[in-house]
């Protein structure tokens, strides 16, 4: 990681009052990291059917099974 990325993580973690922060290149990557952290691998993850495709891709990349829920 670059010194700029490391500085961003340090400054952000101090700003929000946590010990750590992780900078990602996209929202898709951020969602995937969160899903991996909570351990969705091998489980069903229910997402709205009218969501952006990146939501489903993040679930698949983290090893989860996408289940679409219809939204009226």
From TrEMBL:
Biological processes per GO annotation: polysaccharide biosynthetic process
Pfam families named among the record's database cross-references: DegT_DnrJ_EryC1 (PF01041)
GO molecular function annotations of the record: pyridoxal phosphate binding; transaminase activity
Protein's UniProt name: DegT/DnrJ/EryC1/StrS aminotransferase family protein
Source organism of the structure: marine metagenome
């Amino acid at each position: 990681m670059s010194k700029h990325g490391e500085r961003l993580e340090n400054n952000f973690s101090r700003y929000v009052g946590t010990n750590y922060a992780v900078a990602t290149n996209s929202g898709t990557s951020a969602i995937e990291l969160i899903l991996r952290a909570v351990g969705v691998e091998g489980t069903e993850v229910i997402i709205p059917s009218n969501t952006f495709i990146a939501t489903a891709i993040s679930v698949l990349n983290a090893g989860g099974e996408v289940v679409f829920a219809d939204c009226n």
